[in-house]
Amino acid sequence: MANYWLICFPLPRTVIRKIDVIYRSFLWSGIVSMSRKSPVAWTNVCKHVKEGGLGVVDLLTWNKCYMLKLLWNICNKSGNLWVKWVHTYYLEKTNIMDVKPKVNSTWIMRGILEQVGFIGPNVAVWNTMRAKGKIRMKSIYNILKPGADKSWHRLMKNNLARPRAIIILWLACHMKLATKSRLVIFDLMTNSECGLCNKEETIQYMFFECEEIKNIWSRILQRIQVNHTPKIWDEEIAPAETIYGAWNFRNGVCFGKIMDREIAVQDIISRLFLEGGLVRFLSHILLD
């Protein structure tokens, strides 16, 4: 139903924000109402996977895309009854590009006319689509919502790991995992020492410098016959299942459980081979 209204009308920002709140709450909690702060800003969640997002459609941008499509239909005089009505009773043989919103204009027409400003800086794209006789919504969406690729985006695409493991990896890439150093910043803890080795627990330290986790890395890579030493987070990001397993191992230690590193290693290895192609995916990422 929401998608239908987005296609037909310029929705008020307050309405779109309320829909976003429902989506955001469901993503992070599984319910439609949540009061706590989200780990990652919704604007980042709505970015393309290559840009570090989850590929969730940004409703405000999507609504603008469809208002541009309505403008396109009017410009090209598509044969539907509504377009004929606009040309007959509203434009009266005037080019819509020259029309300014009137005081008594309907909110739908004002929403459509506001999109004329998009065409100026993107006139080449607009004219190309008009010449081909087809509007490309994906191209318009990407123009309205530009962004830069993240160095780690290839790990998210076609990843065969479990969804929960991919989400933990994604949070780690954004430096949003609830490490002790982050919890201290938000006054949720007073001690930022790593529960495994008593050094300051940051994401970089925990996954690449902590001796306990480095031993897990070593065992995993040895088992899948990959000669590789993880170094820096931004340059050599780890695959999802290993990150997820290491994070679970850390959580167990921090919350007082008796954790066996060998069991953690075997669990990760079992998961890697259980997923079949995940080992090939892992080897390709690390050796590329």
From TrEMBL:
This is Reverse transcriptase zinc-binding domain-containing protein. InterPro entries: RVT-Znf. Pfam families: zf-RVT (PF13966). It comes from the Eukaryota. PANTHER family: REVERSE TRANSCRIPTASE ZINC-BINDING DOMAIN-CONTAINING PROTEIN (PTHR33116:SF66), REVERSE TRANSCRIPTASE ZINC-BINDING DOMAIN-CONTAINING PROTEIN-RELATED-RELATED (PTHR33116). Residues 137-217 form the Reverse transcriptase zinc-binding domain.
